[in-house]
Design brief:
This protein has helices spanning 6-31, 36-59, 74-85, 92-121, 128-153, 172-197, 201-229. It is mainly α.
Length: 233
Amino acid sequence: MNVDALPFTLLILLAQVAIGGLWVLVASDLRGMVAKSFVKFGAGLTLVMAAFTFWVAAKVQVSAEVDGLASAAGLAALALMAQVFAIPTWGYVGTLLSLLVGTMTVGAVSMGMVLGHWYLVTPRLPARPLREVTAFLLLALVIQVILLAPALALPVRQEPANALDVSIGQNPFFWMRVGGGLLFPMALAYMAWDSSGVRAMQSATGLLYLAMALVLSGEVLGKGLLFVTAIPS
């Protein structure tokens, strides 16, 4: 992995946490049944992450195409990111889908972990909100795995200047991304969904803690690989 890509990787990850968290929070609030205190805390957390994203965006030197990125709306911001980072990949659509689904995964796992804590202090909350968030997380992870097939099969338009000498299939970071960042969190998400179904909320929250750490690590690896292989993973 190239250290020059780290600021861009951090920018994407922070944007995914802020935007994805906001999407999941709004969806949960619209569905009802979640505590207002959770919505307020989640909104504050999202605001903090958005501030960090703005700060990193101001520090990172990028082309004029993404000037003003941090102030754009969530979906528009991801679209602008995809436009810039898709240049060497096989196409804009693949990069945009990778960012969108990754954002949904990060948002679901982070807000799901936070939501799980509300059941520890208010056990009488209905189980349905956490069940829905964990089901959404599982679905997003499945889609990410499915998107790997075209990402690996379609040729890139140009090799990055900092491309590695080995193919992505021989790169250990890729398999760490797949196994530790997608497949293992998928198993944890299913177990959290199953645990919330029998109201074992403490177990579900613990599982989401582990899933969040793995998902965030996997996203860092995936975006780092994007910059050195031009393959959105």
